Amino acid sequence: MLSNSLRDRDIASQLHPQTNLALHERVGPVIIAEGNGAEIRDANGKVYIEGMSGLWCTALGLSEKRLVEAATRQMSTLPYYQNFAHRSTEPGILLAEKLLELAPVPMSKVLFQSSGSEANDTAVKLAWYHFAAQGRPEKRKIIGRMRGYHGTSIASASITGLPHLHRDFHLPLPNFLHVTCPHFYREGRPGETEEQFSTRLADELDALILAEGPETVAAFFAEPAMGTGGAVMPPKGYFEKIQKVLKKHEVLLVADEVITGFGRTGNWWGSQTFGLQPDMITCAKALTAAYMPLSAILLSEPIYASMVAQSEKIGVFGHGYTYGAHPVACAVANEALRIYEEDGVIAGVAAKGTLMEAVLAPLRDHPLVGELRGAGLMWGVEIVADKVTRAPYDAARAVPAKVQDAAFAEGLVCRALGSAIAIAPPLIVSPDQIAAIGKRFATALDRVADDLGIM
Ligand SMILES: Cc1ncc(COP(=O)(O)O)c(C=O)c1O
Q: Which protein residue's CA is at the shortest distance from atom 3 of ligand 1?
């Protein structure tokens, strides 16, 4: 008999990504019914601060009427058109122009898709196409970083450096390589300074490219600050040193700004916060504040020139998605960018980030906290079993997940990622809500510490 409860119907009908599916059959979903600014309400009426902006994406919260109106206007004028074969729509043109104006380094063109995974997949293809146009088709290996996250489609998952996203999927594909995660707290050696750590990682990259043969390496993908890997900020000097190596070997830098684009770290782009001069930028999420699915690649003039040459040779740029520059998604993105600019949303992130740090800083003394790190409104709290040795808890004990669940019970959404907890509220979060995040998170840590018998 089919149960009427939404919970049971969910279990019976819907497959949930990034979920322990056996556990889901037992516990079912939390059903979210409504959004209001930086808060959500579940189907039982309980209200939470959405301290993760959904999946790092609802930068303007969940009740921004201007975005709804922008979508409605476009829906009633032209709900869909495509941009293959010389067709275009005004929202797509305006958005491409605006992104080129906002770009952190000079960029030539914008190519639209619907998701971050598609953007990174496409960036891989463009890197291949670019070197093929130069008569160097063998220059095609792609380097990512351990704990980097770039999506779950076949190429983007291959760039991703999280083994649980590879296992039993026959991933990564051949020719996708990974270097050390730039997390000084976890990967730094005893006595090593942050700068020395960065130098070692740049040397490692140099050695890998030399061992593979620079003529075989096309691109290096990096999130300016790592999200899913645990909100990891780059160590001092890292990107400066890495970029020297990439330049020397003519390896393209792709900045994956899917999380860091549009204000998350306090500037429009993570590339500005952390000093990247990418050849391509992929972005999504806050591009539309997540009200519609949309991603974009910004690409440099030399890459565009290669694409023109290739498409002339072949007769077509043989790539594209049905929903590529979806006019409703582009109209929403145009409105989101206007709000970020006109309402000073992005200009306000730095001060909110300072407040967030002040609120979270006392937790550095908590027995469960090894490191507090972050920029703007992107924060990571490293959970440790031993503050001195930095040893994490055995993964099977799922201590970070317990903290996440305890915070949820307190009315705060945060996210366990490996041995860390991420906190990344909407950019419109209020000072009072930031204070509440700090209180609720501290209570959650105390509860878990209590349960573990360490307080
Ligand atoms: C840095 C980064 N790149 C790419 C992606 C993939 O985006 P999507 O889930 O839209 O495919 C994500 C998603 O979280 C991400 O954080």
A: 150
Would you tell me which CATH number, out of the four given (3.40.190.10, 3.40.50.2020, 3.90.1150.10, 3.40.1000.10), belongs to the domain 31-59+346-451?
3.90.1150.10
Instruction: For residue 447, report the distance from its CA to the centre of ligand 1, in Å.
Output: 32
Buried b (16+ CB within 10 A) or exposed e, 357-385: bebbeeeeebebbbbbbbbbbbbbbbbbb
- Locate CATH 3.90.1150.10 in the chain: 31-59+346-451
Q: What is the pLDDT of residues 128-153, one digit of tens each?
A: 999 999 999 999 999 999 999 999 99
The CATH number given to 68-342 is: 3.40.640.10
Instruction: Answer whether residue 1 shows pLDDT above 50.
Output: no
Report the distance separating Cα 59 and Cα 335, nearest Å: 13
**Cβ of 258 less than 6 Å from ligand 1:** yes
Q: Is 122 in the pocket of ligand 1 (CB under 6 A)?
A: no
Distance 149 CA to ligand 1 centre (A): 7
For residues 428-450, average pLDDT: 98
How crowded is the C-beta side of 433, counted as CA atoms within 13 Å? 26
Residue 334 Cα to ligand 1 middle (Å) = 21
Q: Ligand 1: which of 118, 149, 154 to mutate, most ligand atoms within 8 Å of CB?
A: 149
Residue 159 has pLDDT above 70, yes or no: yes
Contact (Cβ atoms closer than 8 angstroms) between residue 258 and residue 296: no
Burial (CB < 10 A; 0-12, 13-18, 19+), residue 106, is exposed
